[in-house]
Amino acid sequence: MSFMQALRTRWHQADSLVCVGLDPEPAKFPAQFAHDPDAVFNFCRAIVDATAPYVCSFKPQIAHFAALGAEDALQRLIAHAHAAHPGIPVILDSKRGDIGSTAQHYASEAFDRYAADAVTVNPYLGRDSVQPFLDRADRGVVILCRTSNPGAGDLQDLAIDGRPLYQHVADKVAHEWNTHGNCALVVGATWPQQLREVRMIVGDVPFLVPGVGAQGGDVEAVVTNAKTADGTGLIVSSSRAILYASNGPDFAQAAAAAAKSLRDGINRHR
Ligand SMILES: O=c1ccn([C@@H]2O[C@H](COP(=O)(O)O)[C@@H](O)[C@H]2O)c(=O)[nH]1
Asked: At the top level of its lineage, which domain of life is listed (predicted)?
């Protein structure tokens, strides 16, 4: 099943638009992992298993693994998610972008090495840099559009032909690059007005929406501004607020409760 089919199926079957972000930070792990040589994998696996009933996807962030030399844990974690929770797509957040000949290797890294169902990509180098990802029609290509961070507007808001750059990205992705129907866009939860503007431009193209939880984005504003007509279209991602809801022995249950609470909060406004 393609990423887009799996996502749509999961939205409906789990009645959830929640994505749990997997951003391991060992200093925040509960004490029980202090002497565990495989702590990154074991912590993340417990989170995946506890939160699976409440999510439409998982989103491991590659830097959190690579900085620890834990690429092997990332590979095993994605394999575990697929085996234990079939039908829940995994989005590798790696924000890759390079010339085409190198981008081919980044696409292979995400889809062949890690077996991710989708990957985040930086569009700054232009279409040929994204093409190796777009060509994998069964996998999702989640392209940065208007990011959630405070400095997002420094470049993304620069006006070109009377429109901010992020609107050009949205337009190009939706109307030129999405020939296989496998594109999605990153639009931060911290920018409700931009969420609405991008939705107006791109129709039903899905949004990956980071920025609720630790970054303070407003769930109601996200849903009302960015949902599609059928009340879906969103992958609302939260990492720290779920992963570190408790640092006690109940960490997995606390994460599950936080994921369920986010799901229910979103669904109240769909
Ligand atoms: O615009 C963006 C794009 C990606 N991210 C990533 O999402 C998570 C957010 O973590 P929280 O703990 O929920 O704040 C993190 O992995 C970022 O790299 C983003 O925040 N904004």
From this structure: Bacteria
DSSP 3-state of 243: helix
Encoding tokens for residue 159? Answer: 């006006």
Q: Which residues line ligand 1 (CB under 6 A)?
A: 21, 23, 61, 93, 147-149, 186, 188, 210-211, 213-215, 237-240
Which residues lie closer than 8 Å to 154 by C-beta, 6 or more apart?
A: none
**DSSP E strands, the chain:** 18-22, 57-60, 91-96, 118-121, 140-146, 159-160, 163-164, 183-187, 207-210, 234-238
CA–CA distance, 149 with 145 (Å, rounded to integer): 12
Which segments within 115-174 are labelled E, that is strand? 118-121, 140-146, 159-160, 163-164
Beta strands 163-164; 183-187: pairing state: unpaired
Say yes or no: ipTM exceeds 0.85. yes
| Centroid of ligand 1 to alpha carbon of 106 (angstroms) | 20
State which ligand 1 atom lies nearest to the alpha carbon of 214.
14
Buried/exposed 117-144: b ≥16 CB within 10 Å, e otherwise: bbbbbbbebeeebbebbbebeebbbbbb
Model pLDDT for residues 194-232, shown as the tens digit of each residue: 999 999 999 999 999 999 999 999 999 999 999 999 999
Q: Choose which residue among 20, 59, 61 to substitute to test ligand 1 binding: the one with the highest number of ligand atoms within 8 A of its C-beta.
A: 61
Q: Which pair of tokens denotes residue 30?
A: 């509960």
